[in-house]
TrEMBL record:
Keyword Coiled coil recorded: yes
Signal peptide boundaries: 1-20
SUPFAM superfamilies assigned to the protein according to its UniProt record, in alphabetical order: TNF-like (SSF49842)
Keyword entries, A-Z: Coiled coil, Signal
Taxonomic path: Eukaryota, Metazoa, Spiralia, Lophotrochozoa, Mollusca
Annotated protein name in UniProt: C1q domain-containing protein
Length: 392
């Protein structure tokens, strides 16, 4: 279609150009007269030919250019044809989109109408509000004018008083609240006290009951105690009886024990003893717990062999008439443990020296007395020695 359109353009153009050439009045053809060709005519013809040649060349050039353009146009048209298919599709899509857009537009239009209605109503309301604002402004202005007036002062005072009253009310409310909480607390205290009193009463009841029970228990206990005391008395008597019996037995044993302890008194043989001879004690006057044999050895040799371990009280008295400086040595196992001195200064004088000594003796310890120098020892009741075993 584009192709034929191009031809339709070109052909009229060509004819127009030719036509233009024919219609040009400056190039009017010479009238066909029988007159000879004048110079003027010749020049005109020549010019015409030249002009015509130039025109043809021009036309040829133009034709060539047009051909080139035609080719280019054809190419362009072909390209356009191809692209137009794509464009057609694109356009179709666009058309679809456009339809959608149009429907959306319609929808928007509808919404827009609704919005317009709303805006209208808002505008109306706004106007009313504006009117109201104006009224308010007017009132405020009149109020502001009132400020200077006494009425306003009164209003302010009233407001101030109201403020003060409100503060006071707040304070009162606070006090009331604190009072209320205090009352609540007191109430709680009271309830607690009541509960306590209740529980105390209950406790008291229980205690009284318990006391009652205890009283019964006490009389019961008293009774039992009496029985117990009786039983204890009996026990005590039994114990006493037993102890007494034991004591009696023990006492008997002790007496027996005591009688077993060594206790004897033996008196010396009256004679003059020379140095380093033992004084003999053959005269036994008292004897407990000592064998006869031991005492007979003592009497015969003057040596006493201890029969039993123990603490012994040894006492004696000895009389001499030896003048001057004499003494007796008391030996235990050949060691002197005591000296007994005499110092008779004149003739026919006598002296008794005594001794009391405690000695712990082991069994088989031997004891004997020897004068340091020759001396007479009176016998019988004048010179005696006693052993008393105090402990076992
Ligand atoms: C473009 O699309 C229309 C409608 O679908 C069709 O009639 C027409 O022939 C198409 N043109 C081309 C050049 O494809
Ligand atoms: C607003 O006030 C003007 C003048 O006071 C009045 O003419 C108009 O009707 C009022 N508008 C409304 C909506 O009340
Ligand atoms: C409100 O009262 C207080 C004390 O009663 C006073 O100091 C204050 O100036 C008053 N204010 C006005 C606006 O009267
Ligand atoms: C008074 O105190 C109570 C408890 O705090 C509160 O609920 C009430 O709003 C107060 N009233 C006033 C007038 O302050
Ligand atoms: C006596 O007291 C004991 C414990 O103290 C109790 O077990 C017993 O029930 C009481 N008896 C009476 C009769 O209250
Ligand atoms: C204790 O001894 C006394 C007197 O000998 C006797 O009357 C009493 O029954 C004895 N008591 C006991 C519990 O043996
Ligand atoms: C004698 O008494 C002692 C203790 O003093 C004792 O050990 C010993 O058994 C008693 N002897 C007799 C026969 O009772
Ligand atoms: C004491 O002497 C006797 C006889 O010599 C002896 O049998 C005994 O073992 C001696 N006892 C002690 C404790 O020395």
């Amino acid at each position: 279609m584009g192709f034929s359109w191009v031809f339709a353009v070109i052909i009229p153009y060509v004819f127009l150009v030719c036509d233009g050439f024919l219609l040009d009045d400056r190039n009017k053809p010479a009238t066909t007269s029988r007159s000879l060709l004048t110079d003027e005519n010749y020049n005109a013809l020549f010019n015409l030919i030249v002009h015509e040649r130039q025109s043809r060349a021009k036309l040829e050039q133009q034709l060539a250019r047009i051909e080139r353009e035609l080719t280019a146009t054809q190419q362009g048209v072909t390209d356009i044809y191809h692209t137009s298919t794509d464009n057609n599709n694109t356009l179709e899509n666009q058309a679809k989109i456009w339809n959608e857009i149009r429907s959306e537009c319609n929808h928007l239009n509808t919404e827009n109408d609704l919005l317009k209605l709303k805006v209208d109503s808002i505008e109306k309301k706004h106007t009313v509000l504006e009117n109201y604002t104006k009224v308010l402004e007017h009132e405020v202005a009149s109020l502001q004018q009132l400020k200077g007036v006494k009425d306003l002062q009164t209003v302010m005072n009233v407001r101030n008083e109201t403020k003060v009253l409100r503060e006071e009310l707040k304070l009162t409310n606070n006090s009331l609240n604190s009072l209320r909480s205090e009352a609540e607390a007191r109430k709680q205290d009271f309830v607690a006290l009541l509960n306590k009193a209740d529980s105390t009463e209950r406790n008291l009841e229980i205690t009284v009951k318990a006391l009652h029970n205890n009283m019964n228990n006490v009389s019961e206990t008293q009774h039992q105690t009496k029985l117990e005391i009786k039983r204890m008395e009996n026990d005590m008597q039994m114990y006493q009886n037993r102890t007494f019996k034991n004591l009696q037995e023990n006492l008997g044993l002790e007496i027996h024990n005591m009688s077993n302890r060594a206790a004897f008194t033996a008196c010396a043989k009256d004679q003059t003893y020379s140095t380093a001879t033992s004084i003999l004690f053959p005269d036994v006057q008292t004897r407990f717990g000592v064998s006869n044999s031991a005492l007979s050895v003592f009497g015969g040799s003057g040596k006493y062999t201890c029969g039993e371990d123990g603490l012994y009280l040894i006492s004696g008295f000895f009389m001499t008439d030896a003048t001057g400086y004499v003494y007796l040595n008391f030996y235990k196992n050949s060691i002197i443990f005591e000296r007994i001195y005499f110092s008779v200064t004149t003739g026919h004088s006598y002296q008794t020296s005594t001794t009391v000594i405690l000695q712990y003796l082991n069994k088989n310890d031997t004891l004997h007395l020897q004068p340091y120098s020759t001396m007479r020892v009176f016998g019988s009741s004048y010179s005696c020695i006693s052993f008393l075993q105090l402990t076992n």
